[in-house]
Amino acid sequence: MDKLKAMYHLCCIAEAGSFSGAAKAANVPVSAVSRSIQALESELGAALLKRSTRHVALTEIGRIYLNESKDILAAIERAEGRVGSYQNAPSGVLRISALPHYGEFRMLPLLQEFQSRYPQIVIDLELSNRPADLQRDGIDIAIRGGSEPDGRVIAQRLEDNTHRLCASASYIAQYGMPQTIAELSHHRALLYRSPSQILHWHVERQGTWQRVDISTAQISNSFRVIRQALLTDQGVAMLPSWSVEEEIADGRLCWVPLPEILSIAASHPASSVYMLYQQPQYTVPKIKVAVDFFKKYLS
């Protein structure tokens, strides 16, 4: 039995004073109203109505049940109204988990524009390197780097994350431009430390990855710290283009071209930054507008 429909029919009977009037109000046959009330009374084990040939009245327990039914039906109507308005205007808390350096350099400058467009969305931004389980952690969108994730989530590629060797123009003027991997032994490295390890540099030779012979000047888990060390001529570093694009453009930093492939890990050097989200969640307005916005401005 459809209990909500039976509650609605009971409300119609109380309003109209008859089964025929209730059937007309509900736009159903009289027999349908009669069957739903009979089924409701049978399930409750109580008579809700007093019936006569001329009149239908509520019993005492019927009046109590009617009042509760009205409250329930009104709550459902309010909830449906909220869903409707929610779908029309994106709103609610949007949970985003992003790589700390990518979040700082690429996402933070965009958040003011996003929130001016969608003022009813509250951004809950977590900057973290830890792997994100969207469903378990209640995350709407995650920004992660590396190879393309598995097919359990939608992975929208945002941009290249391949790390390249760079130095300041003044450093190159002072110490010279390295021409080969071997010449890096005369320079000092600014190394990035991930949550699990220091990312030493490797070069591919004869199908295997070998660690590069270079002394270390500084180690940090912050791209901002490494970038500052670069600008003060403390060494050379491996960084993705998006983290130093302003300094490369104005000439303060420059790329160091080498004939061999250099990587920050003993693996294939190609990597990207991905925006991860669950396909069913894309229908939620706040997630849809966020995915479309970041795809437009970061891809």
Automatic annotation (TrEMBL):
Keywords: DNA-binding, Transcription, Transcription regulation. CDD domains: PBP2_CrgA_like. It comes from Zhongshania borealis. Belongs to the LysR transcriptional regulatory family. PROSITE patterns: HTH_LYSR. Pfam families: HTH_1, LysR_substrate. SUPFAM superfamilies: Periplasmic binding protein-like II, Winged helix' DNA-binding domain. This is LysR family transcriptional regulator. The keyword Transcription applies. Residues 1-59 form the HTH lysR-type domain.
